[in-house]
Design brief:
The protein has 624 residues and is mainly α. It is built from 34 helices and no strands. It has helices at residues 11-14, 64-67, 85-96, 107-120, 134-139, 146-151, 159-166, 172-181, 188-200, 204-216, 224-237, 240-249, 257-269, 273-285, 292-305, 310-319, 326-338, 342-354, 361-373, 377-388, 399-408, 412-422, 428-440, 444-457, 463-475, 479-491, 498-510, 514-527, 534-547, 550-562, 569-581, 589-595, 602-610, 618-623. Helix 11 (224-237) packs antiparallel against helix 12. The longest helix has 14 residues, at 107-120.
Amino acid sequence: MWALRRSSNPLKNHGLSVRTFQACHAKSETLDSYYKGRADICKSPQMRTGSYLSLRTFYHNTDVYSVFTMGSCSFSSQAGAESSGEEDDLEDRFSELEASDHAGGFQDSDRESEHEDKLLSDPESDDDEIEPSQNELELLDIDTNVSEKRSSRNGKQSELFKVIMAASGQSIHVVLKKWDQEGKDMSRPEIAQVMLSLRRLRLFWRALQFSEWLEDHKKLNMDERDYVSRVDLIAKVHGLEKAEQYIEKIPKSFKGELVYRTLLANYVSTTNLNKAEEIFNKMKDLGFPITTFACNQLLLLYKRVDKKKIADVLLLMEKENLKPSAFTYGLLIDAKGQSNDISGMEQIVETMKAEGVEPNLDIQSILVRHYVLGGLKEKAEEVMKEMEGNNLKENRWVCRVLLPLYAALGKADDVKRIWELCESNPKFSDFIAAIEAYGKLKKVEEAEAIFNKMLKTYRRHSSKHYSVLLKVYADNKMLLKGKDLVKQMADNGCRIGPLTWDALVKLYVEAGEVEKADQILHKAMQNNRMKPLFNTFTVIMDQYAKRGDIHNTEKMFQQMKRSGYVTRARQFQCLVNAYINAKAPAYGMKERMKADNIFPNKMLAAQLAQVDAFRRSAATDLLD
């Protein structure tokens, strides 16, 4: 299946790393399929027949189970762990590209974190539906056709859902009690539709209230999917510790693999390495089968914190005969593209097709992005024509994917063509994609015109509507226009939250007013319970590091910790860079990293060597 054999471009020469394959937000949609009446999410892992995923030419044939056990050879990264030379060589291949700067330093990791943060916590959401992407669905091992998913949304909206949404100033319990007393529909299909709609809007707190009311008033005979839903909602609203406490109360007959996979996905979403590994091992100890979904979650986790472990996960999948999902393929394709191994990337695509798995829109988008970065515009356009298909009018939902890709290619005429196709009846996501596309093309007036049309289309205006144009102003260094837009938001009573803070901080940073951006972030943290996005911190932190301002870089580093962000190598890279630019030694930096369970890749190790207070050189040896 993955016939990933060594070719003229061996992996060692190119490295294998992971770029932003935007599937991380799947964890917030873990239960989406349940409310469509899908039962196949609980199925056992698919076993390979015939041709089979062979990684032996890439990976040392070790005892993969020893990698995934707690103890001295624990699942977590261990500094100084003994391994064979071949294993070390393999691990280096995964870490080599972490030092790659072809996409602009930390830009990719920031974009990943920003995207994840938006989807993990979206307190600015009002009534605009958020479309889950295909890779969200693939991450759940659901064999569901995308068009089938989307067509299921075109039915009549639930009346109960409308009542709940209209009662924003009332207690949801009052509304539900009245609905029930009037003898209106409270069937499982109706409940499922309401729950799905609330999840799509990311109104998790309201969905949790709804779920609790149903159970308290015995309107629902709880089954496994209901308990799984509750675990997921509690994790999102009250935190993972509360979710684990709730799991202990679930009847044993309903406490299956699905409950724990949901907990695993939520721990991965918070980049909690130790707990995610603990839950994975607990699933094994409880006798649950190892699934592609669980392995994909580990791939997501190690993509962020320890890319060297990606090889171990793939070896485990091979040993367990697990069928890779489209997400797993997309991850490998993206890795090849990141290492500039275009032929290797295309080879994986061919292997994927040979196994009967056609590239979905997300994978095609990855291909286009890497073709563009590699200067292969003709190949990029060829893939995009495939994405368009023969009748784009019948596949209107593809437009929102194509718009930013054509903008990345600088194809203003195609952006205009695609937008004109949507313009007569655009959805919210079409508006957003078009505004972003014209912003990338530096066509601010066109972006503003689409923004004004969007305001006229929607009765209620949320900060999400404004933040997209605010980002355009930030990218084009239009500080005055950005300030005016924020005032307009305030005048319209929009709730300002993390998305707006992020755009506003970038606006001031791009204008060279870093201290003002810092003040905005500080005020946001003081006056609001919501957590700023990961990237909001790092965009300021980077600027201080470039200046060699150790004090303020350290301040941002500590603020991120206090805000609940797990420390990653990304923050340490920035911090060490501040010491380098200040030409100052960084005493105890290695010990700080070790305390945070961070082990340096090649780039970070090279940085650390530059700020080592006890570094010796040929000159110092002569003087001694």
